[in-house]
Amino acid sequence: MHDDDLMALSKKFDAMLEVSDDPAALENLRLFLLGKKGELTALLKTLSAMEPDERRAFGQKANEFKNYAENKLDEARRQNDAKQIENALGLEKIDVTRPGRRRPVGRKHPLTQVLGEMKDLFVGMGFTIEEGPEIEKDYYNFEALNIPANHPVKDIQDTFYIDGQFVLRTHTSPVQVRVMEKRKPPIRIIAPGAVYRADDWDATHSPMFHQLEGMLIDKNITFGDLKGMLIFFAKKLLGEDVGVRFRPSFFPFTEPSAEMDVACYSCGGGGRGCRVCKESGWVELLGCGMIHPNVLSMSGIDPAEYTGWAFGMGPGRITTARFNIPDTRLLFENDMQFLNQFNRP
Ligand code: PHE
Q1: Distance 285 CA to ligand 1 centre (A)
Q2: Which atom of ligand 1 sits closest to the CA of residue 287?
């Protein structure tokens, strides 16, 4: 009777071992057989109620089975561990022939590239680079540049006012004044930086943009010097055959004043429906002129002894011209797909 039970249990164990292929299943099988409430444990408990002969005979068989089962379970566990290690090694195998991962290298924004070239050009001619605050005193932004409080030009330059005394500078020209106040001629400076106007957001305007101011003051400086310098500059940056024209203009801080245009880089000149030049064939690049005597004397420089020129240009315009970019807004959208086209080391 007990022998039959043992036989049945042995068969059951073998069958269960067959399908126990992970550590949890093997542990369950061990508990099923040998645990406190295990089947074999229960059988062994019946030994004490047996006659001595039967006990000896059955006890031997039961113990043999116990040893057998324990060995089998050990072996299965070992095989299982080995299989797991093998699997893990298979997963972690390194293919040393695979190509490496590309690490993208950062490059300069096209505007920064062009600004850098502009700076190099002027530094090479003996100009120094100056900076001024973007939150500027009304005095430096307007008054000291010959723009009195009620001057209509203040309407044209739709200004962002901080309060009555401070504005977001509408141009880099206040840096002219800051430099004149602290230095004596000869003066040769450029002043690059961000400026702000409550402008429309269109293909050629944004409320924040960049300017590069230039100023030269010395004895006997004429409008001819200014023109020569600017034409040289345009050719260096946009190519020897770039079309250039000067138009008479007005700025309160220069007299005479002019604006310099370059032939439209988008349509090649006079293109119908061209958004960049608005069909005029020309794109305004900068304002310039001879520094107004009032401006010189207000900042402590004697206009009888010294003359000078100044210009303010938009590096954004030169950048769009150089790279044939049809819309300034693209420069400020930080779209990497767009910017990567202009990646030059
Ligand atoms: N500050 C002028 C502007 O922003 C440009 C300019 C600079 C004109 C210097 C003349 C001289 O439009």
Answers
A1: 11
A2: 8
Output the six-digit token pair for 3.
Answer: 């022998």
| Cα distance between residue 41 and residue 37, in whole Å | 7
pLDDT digits (tens, 9 = 90+) for 123-140: 999 999 999 999 999 999
- Look at the pTM and tell me if it is higher than 0.70: no
Enter the tokens of residue 184. 């004596």
Domain 110-339 indexed as CATH 3.40.50.300: no
Sign of CA dihedral 286, 287, 289, 291: negative
Residue pLDDT, tens place only, 228-275: 999 999 898 888 988 899 999 999 999 999 999 988 877 777 678 887
Q: Which residues pair with 283 in a beta bridge?
A: 262
Q: What is the mean pLDDT of residues 307-334?
A: 88
Q: Distance, CA 20 to ligand 1 centroid (Å)?
A: 86
- Tell me, what DSSP letter sits at residue 325? -
pLDDT score for 11: 92
Q: Where are the domains of the chain?
A: 2-91, 110-339
What are the phi and psi torsion angles at 267 (to 5°)?
A: -105, -5
At residue 130's C-alpha, the angle toward residues 164 and 311, to 5°, is 80
Identify the helix (H) or strand (E) that includes residue 63: helix 52-91
